[in-house]
């Protein structure tokens, strides 16, 4: 059942990621495919969903491969759960109130920000190994969102292209953007221990029942 579920989710993930890019091309907001790619890969949502797609795909590959072993690690899968949950929370709380996508755009946005988070959280709760995960792993979990925030700011300063309004230095100023970025990283620092605690709770309950 686990492998069948992950095969289905992997297919959905890669299809939705591809359709989101196709949708951006159809909208034609950017002058070339290269520029569209540049903007597309600027979104945390896209990077988080690529990691999720790899997490669904890698365990289905040769189990001796480093990629498969990396994405099977309990700490890695729990970190990805925290990332994709935050993608959904930020989208629904900070973006949806100011953005009303329609048609194909709504389908792809919902796929990345709602469907994939739900599918991955289900996988993490019911199929992923929960141990060993320790609180000492948390600083490593924060590297990805922190690096994303810093590179987004640098990229924006060089190109004036910002993926999200709350990272727009031109409109908000560098001080406010840094505050927003540190705030988001702090939220990840709070969400991470919740997943670690839930992992320990599920693991302990499973041992007790067995």
UniProtKB/TrEMBL annotation:
Keywords: Membrane, Transmembrane, Transmembrane helix
Residues in the signal sequence: none
Keyword Lyase tagged: no
Transmembrane segments: 40-62, 74-94, 106-126, 138-158, 178-202
Domain of life according to the entry: Bacteria
Protein name, as recorded: Integral membrane protein
Top-level taxonomy: Bacteria, Pseudomonadati, Pseudomonadota, Gammaproteobacteria, Cellvibrionales
